[in-house]
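Thread title: Can someone regenerate the structure for this chain?

I was given the following input by a collaborator and told the matching structure tokens would be attached. They weren't. Posting the sequence so someone can regenerate them.
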Amino acid sequence: MKRPEAKISIFDHGLMYGDGVFEGIRAFGGVVFKLDEHITRLFSSAKMIKLQVPASKEDIIVIVLEVLRRCELQDAYIRVVVTRGVGPVGLSYLNCPKPTFMVFAEPIVSTSMLEEKGVSAIVSSIRRDPVDATTHEIKSLNYLNSIMAKTEAIVLGIDEAIMLDTRGFVSEATTTNIFIVKNLEITTPPATAGILHGITRDRVIELARELGYLVTVRDMTIYEVVSADEVFLVGTYAGIIPMVELKRDSIGDGKPGLVTRRLIEVFKKIAREPTEGTVIYTEK
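Best answer:
Regenerated them for you:
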């Protein structure tokens, strides 16, 4: 169906309470990047909140590919959503007998300008809660934590917000994981900092090591971000985006660095390789 035809009940608990899980997935040049891993994480998130996914993993993969074919998309953003479903007012999952399941895809908006110029960021006053159900292992529909941080940035005319965990260590940006580069060593926060365990993050760590860089996963301070040679953000939709300014201070020389640019170039190539995901169109 087309966008104007898509509808959901006002009594759906995904709308009323954010009770549901989702996966955002990218297709690059006819290859759905890490599709199997994304659907596996969808089931893991659903299990942790006792939500029954109304289709098998294999069936969802088939559905995703069919949606892309019908929409004639090879470069796209795909979202797979499972909500608790329609039920009366109240938090009990027992009152929602049938989950709501949906898949949609839309053309990707180019990120080339952001890759070339980079983005600015603030340090948000909103903290990431490392034990909150909206972070770490559960990719839930409840994004209010991130929305509040993003709103702070928008009000100030800044692109992005960096969030700290409850201990004061760097966690992540509102929808992306953060990496810093110092003396050619790459560092990114651990899961204990309240981050979402990103699938693209894992592949970028692996890629950086394949290219010969030392990658360390550890707690890091906001001072390390400000004083880094380079900073970049990683997410499913964004890919790899340079961050060139924090708190209106330039990071490095204020331009995307050599390491970041190399990672962007190589990642954009490998993301289109069939070995990195699932091919949309196959020969019969």
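The domain at 113-270 is CATH 3.20.10.10 (D-amino Acid Aminotransferase; Chain A, domain 2).
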